[in-house]
Amino acid sequence: WGRTGHRATGEVAEEYLSKKAKQQIKELLNGQSLAFVSTYGDDIKSDPQYRKYGPWHYVNLDEGQTEYSKEEANPKGDLVQAIKTSITVLKDPKASKEDKAFYLKMLVHFMGDLHQPMHTGRGEDKGGNDIQVRWFGKGSNLHRVWDSEMINDFQMSFTELAESTDELTAKEIKQIRSGSILDWMYESKELSKKLYDSVETGEKLGYEYMYEWFPVAHDQIQKGGIRLAKVLNDIFG
Ligand code: ADE
Ligand code: ZN
Ligand code: ZN
């Protein structure tokens, strides 16, 4: 996601944190909110020191590869490995506060990206970055439409995007929380297939596309926030 999607993910998660998790997160982040730190993963991208984290923002399975496997995974890392590494450091009693704070900020970001379907898309078109489309008359691409164009043009603030979780029932929340990182990745990947089918290269997209798909983006952001809180509650007890 772009900044708004990431911030909304962090904002949703705050609502679902346990007392213990909240306390430890507050200490690690020196009082900064999850929404505030959620964009850190993108902000460090321009710093050569952090270049190695570039591939950690997405995961591509090859055509015909139905299951994620360690053997076929990108040796430079990917979104699944990124989330697992972040969790491992956060659970490590010997890790420094500095390292924990870094990986906490990264985890908040990566749980957002896991729910942006084009971050679990095909490698050959760079998760839709190479699929050019027109967005309200301007040049764009399928990845960018999903990262930010739809959300920005809907003009919903991150707090507004986060708010409507209140409408979810306890049963729905329980359903969303179930499953593993890999299950959530496959769910996002299934959605990406629908999105690839939803457009043709060069297609003119606008309000019709936005009204069909914005609710799906919104849903994904909510799920990302609820699941981020689940992961953090598991880590911090
Ligand atoms: N961003 C850059 N490359 C990407 C890829 N292969 N998949 C998803 N997002 C990307
Ligand atoms: Zn990212
Ligand atoms: Zn993106």
UniProtKB/TrEMBL annotation:
UniProt keyword tRNA processing, yes or no: no
Lineage: Bacteria, Pseudomonadati, Bacteroidota, Flavobacteriia, Flavobacteriales
Organism superkingdom: Bacteria
Keywords: Disulfide bond, Endonuclease, Glycoprotein, Hydrolase, Metal-binding, Nuclease, Signal
Protein's name according to its UniProt entry: S1/P1 Nuclease
Any GO BP annotation: DNA catabolic process
Keyword Glycoprotein: yes
Recorded GO MF terms: endonuclease activity; hydrolase activity, acting on ester bonds; metal ion binding; nucleic acid binding
Family matches, as SUPFAM superfamilies: Phospholipase C/P1 nuclease (SSF48537)
Gene3D superfamilies (alphabetical): P1 Nuclease (1.10.575.10)
Pfam families: S1-P1_nuclease (PF02265)
